[in-house]
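Archive entry: two folds, one per protein. Generate the first.
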Amino acid sequence: MITIRHAEAQDFELVADFIRKLADYEKLAHEVRFDDATLHRHLFGARPAAEVLIGEVDGVASGFALYFQTFSTFEGKPGIWLEDLFVEPHARGAGLGRALLSRLAALVIERGGARLEWNVLDWNELGKGFYRSIGAAHVDGWERWRMQDDALEALANGV
């Protein structure tokens, strides 16, 4: 049996563990550098920056989806950006990933939104196949850009 629930503050260690496991899977463990107190504040503080769904299989937490609200000026409506989706290897194939995405799609609709979007690593063919199977499509013509660390600091300081 699959259940999806919103994470609460007492789920913090579980969420942090899922983030680390996802980073391992994506070969990006070296990029995980969050401070527990800061992450906790941003997820469960007075003004959360993101939300988390916990997916359970037979009562055992086996995956998560971390997401936040976006806004499309062209649509004139909000949406949801799925930052991270992870399902434990033992639970893959049970329908948990689909259930998490289904709940996110329902949240987009419940909140009057227009889009559910996310990134996929270019080498993750298994993920891409799964996303295609549920009706998702690659967005042609767009590239992801990022500013962080020294470049972000320099721009913020007018350099």
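Generate the second and append.
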Amino acid sequence: AELRTVITGVTGRMGQMLVKLVRDTDGFTLSGGTEKQGSPAVGLDVGRACHISMLEVHIGGGLDQALAS
């Protein structure tokens, strides 16, 4: 079974590192990412915001929003 993962602060240095780690680790799937509300990154694809390939997961404006998706 895949462990679904949500990463907060995905556009920061640590967030980007975690996105890449989750993408490259078997048994994990990225199911959400967040940035603070009002960030220009909200709504972007997490992969695009992290300068990697598209991941088809969009950045939410808060943890509640990411968990709901």
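Annotation attached to the second fold: The longest strand covers residues 28-34. The chain has a mean pLDDT of 94.
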